[in-house]
Amino acid sequence: MGNIILFNKPYNVLSQFTDKGNYRDTRQTLSHFINHKGFYAAGRLDKDSEGLLVLTNDGALQAKISNPKYRFKKTYWTQVEGEPTERDLYKLRKGIVLTDGKCLPASVRVINEPSSLWKRTPPIRYRKHVRDTWLEIILSEGKNRQIRRMTAAIGYPTLRLIRYGVGHWSIEGLAVGSCSNIDNSD
After folding, report:
1. pTM for the whole thing?
2. Which of 35, 51, 87, 178 is the most buried (most CB within 10 A)?
3. First and final CA of the chain: distance in angstroms?
4. pLDDT at residue 63, as a whole number
5. More confident residue, 5 or 63
6. Catalytic one among 19, 46, 132, 186?
């Protein structure tokens, strides 16, 4: 097996090494943070999401982490607008239907705001009269913008989305914008 890089991706950074869009001079990519050659992201986070991105130089491992058939668990911390009820969360736990099909059941629970949370730039908009709630959501699939679409489907838009873990790896102790190399050769 090859090597792994765990990267705590900041908000507004693309999950790729080059920007082929029209904003090349203004958008940050992985190359702004990681100098290792031959590594590729195993899965993606959209530029509006933060947290753990696993990179590897092992194509088979990359495919295993990325492919939904292997059911690699991914843990997210999600700040939503409003206060979902247990009835709302049950819809996610049983598997909600989105426009591209039914989602697999998710593990969902209300959590306190994570104590290790960093400040986001720009900050989340604060609305004095609208409360927000933090959820921990664990998925074993990865549809495009799935968490955001799931919370919107039950009436609670996502304000901030952080991937905390992938499999047994996490961002624990990993500052935002930093990475850690892991020798995965055993």
Report:
1. 0.92
2. 51
3. 7
4. 86
5. 5
6. 46
